[in-house]
Input
Amino acid sequence: MKPLLFASRLAFICNLLFLVCVIIQRTTNFIGDKEVTAMVILLGWMVAPFQNLLVNCWYGMLLLNKSDKRLPIWLWLVNLTFLFIQFIIYFILPL
Output
């Protein structure tokens, strides 16, 4: 379960950076340093959806196998919520 917990925490961090990216897109860039901004955009826009999809598929496989999972339920719910938000932002809003 340690790899899943690590992947879940990484997905959570990337999801928070995704939220920062959405705020930066809707307002002005409040991060002064260009390198930090580039890292936030890379992890928020590029890595977050794939990492989040991977983690949620892993959760789904655990649920289908009825395996004993020792993960915090709030982490699962937050990652699942962000997956829905990312789906809406990437696929529904651009149309």
Summary: The chain is about 80% helix and 0% strand. The two ends are 39 Å apart (CA to CA). The mean pLDDT is 89.
